[in-house]
Design a protein that fits this description.
single chain, 18 helices, 77% helix, 412 residues, Growth Hormone, Chain: A, mainly alpha
Length: 412
């Protein structure tokens, strides 16, 4: 329970830092005069950095233990997070975002750490509870607009502590240092290291299986799209519905809460009913929820009404919250000794989706002039995943019928 509590709290904070440009990029865009493409890159570059290292981070955690790995990533994130407050150009912002973006790799650390400490019967719930730290994406959206309004433009202590949007990265840097101390001194002294003594080749062997890459596609749908929408929605609400930044941030937080806090529920459902049926239902619901906003641009009445749009977004959020847990429930079931490596690769694929999707949204909107194009992309990904999962289920059913057995074939 100590590992679960500390890792989840640390991950929540790191996730808040990782996605802080979801809100801060709006005033930054105004201050630096960024265009749509620059804005897309600014909101996406930290996602790239928080994606690329998830596989080695998961393997590293299995070898050195989650206590060491989590403490180091907290400290390593604090430094560039602070320097964001000193940025004076778009180039500096991109560089600092690339550096503090390593915070996103903490997901692989926490998954490997919790998998090592939890029993198989409760791994779905434990991993789901840890993953609920995704709610950190809402922290800046909730406190950011209020702080921007409350903190003086000149800051405090004669400018030593900056004001405006620059105050928030300074605040986060201090919180990261404090959290590092809590993790180091509060974690069990004798940590579990399931990968100690194993070669990298042995740990990477499961990655040759097709199902690992299929799980990665599923995770793009439930996590990559979640990250992308968390970054994209504030600006979407402002542009399409003319809302203020505070209102847009609040409605985005209403998307983030179920997409994060329902993850333990998804883990519990997966423990009880199995990962496959839960994931199947999630994909069906998400496909249906994408249709109204995706097709609204073809209506003579213009965009779907705000109430209907929020309802569709909430259905997507519920599906993502439950689906993130059900997808990760697959991993310890099929690869109990390789959660770090397999979970790291699946997390990498999903997080890379979170990096590429906002860029795709930006380029597609610039090309066709339709903001709802983002839902064309998400809807297509969900539908593709649903069809692939359906084909897997059909294959399993036919194989069982041929074999006259109830065990799943190992090749599926």
């Amino acid at each position: 329970m100590r590992v679960l509590l500390l890792s989840t709290t640390a991950f929540t904070l790191l996730f808040a830092v990782w996605l802080m440009f979801g809100v801060l990029a709006v005033p930054i865009k105004e201050e630096f005069g960024l265009n749509a493409i620059q804005f897309a890159w600014l909101t996406s570059i930290a996602i790239l950095s928080g994606s690329l290292w998830r596989l080695p981070m998961g393997m590293w955690t299995d070898r050195v233990g989650g206590k060491v790995a989590m403490t180091i990533i907290l400290l390593a994130t604090a430094v560039p997070c602070y320097f964001v407050s000193t940025a004076s150009s778009f180039t500096q912002l991109i560089v600092f975002a690339l550096l503090f973006g390593i915070a996103g790799n903490s997901f692989s650390i926490g998954i490997a750490w919790n998998a090592a400490w939890s029993t198989r019967e409760r791994q779905g719930f434990a991993l789901g509870t840890f993953g609920a730290g995704n709610v950190g994406a809402s922290v800046t959206k909730l406190i950011g607009p209020a702080l921007l309004a409350l903190i003086p433009a000149g800051g405090f202590l004669n400018g030593l502590v900056p004001g405006g949007w620059r105050f928030i990265p300074v605040m986060y840097a201090v919180m990261l240092l404090v959290m590092a101390a809590f993790v180091w001194f509060g974690s069990p002294a004798n940590d579990l290291k399931p990968g100690a003594g194993r070669s990298a080749r042995e740990m990477l062997k499961p990655l040759s299986e097709v199902r690992v890459w299929r799980f990665g596609l599923y995770y793009i749908v439930v996590f990559g799209a979640y990250v992308a929408m968390s970054l994209w929605l504030p600006n979407y609400y402002k542009k399409v519905y003319g809302l203020s930044l505070s209102s847009a941030a609040l409605l985005t937080a209403l998307f983030i809460f179920p997409a994060s806090l329902l993850r333990p529920v998804g883990g519990w459902l997966s423990d009880r009913f199995g990962a496959r049926p839960v994931t199947y239902v999630v994909f069906v619901a998400m496909t249906l929820a994408c249709l109204p906003p995706a097709l609204s641009g073809f209506s003579n009445d213009g965009p779907i009404g705000l109430g209907g749009f929020v309802a569709c977004i909430e259905v997507l959020a519920i599906g993502m919250g439950i689906g993130k847990a059900s997808v990760y429930k697959y991993i310890p079931e099929y690869f109990p000794k390789d959660v770090g490596a397999v979970g790291g690769l699946v997390g990498t694929i999903g997080a890379l989706g979170g990096f590429l999707l906002p860029l795709g949204f930006g380029y597609l909107e610039a090309a066709i002039g339709r903001p709802e194009g983002c839902f064309w992309v998400i809807g297509g990904l969900v539908a593709t995943s649903m069809v692939w999962l359906h084909l897997v289920v059909v294959g399993i059913t036919r194989s069982r019928a041929r074999q006259g057995a109830f065990a799943e074939p190992s090749a599926v």
